[in-house]
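Journal club side-thread
Mid-discussion, someone asked how the predicted structure for our own chain would compare to the paper's figures. Pasting it here so we can look after the session.
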Amino acid sequence: MNKKSAHIGLVNPKSPANVGMVMRAAGCYEAATVFYSGVRFERAQKFATDTKNAGNKIALVGVENLLDDIPQDATLVAIELIEGATPLMDFVHPANAYYIFGPEDGSIKKELLDHCQHVVYIPTIGCMNLAATVHVVLYDRMAKSGRTVIDERPIAANRDVNNKIRI
């Protein structure tokens, strides 16, 4: 795989709103795929918060186990607020990453963590919302990728259609 890519794995997400917001984050930061495990999300699948229709461009794939469909050449990175993890500000993102995020109401199981090459946390007071965590990690990846992102994502081409303001 020559191209840099980010993939997202969600462990048994329960909230359709959060998954919709994750899909929006995936679209904003050009993630390639979003995988999810578990059945809670499928019971109430709606994309009310994916207002940019990222689901039309990015695959949302339900899997039995997030380890069953690891993207080719991807480095597994768990995002979890646990002791021993690397703070996000010190983390160097791999070119091809598969970020694993735990459920909104629990943690990533040790068996899954043992397969990850990195475990990273965002230093916060308390836990962040799942979708907010995905946004922060993907933004951090973009911010650390270099200044060429400014040329690749011009404001005029990416702003809301109702925003025509200039300074």
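Post-session note: The chain is about 25% helix and 20% strand.
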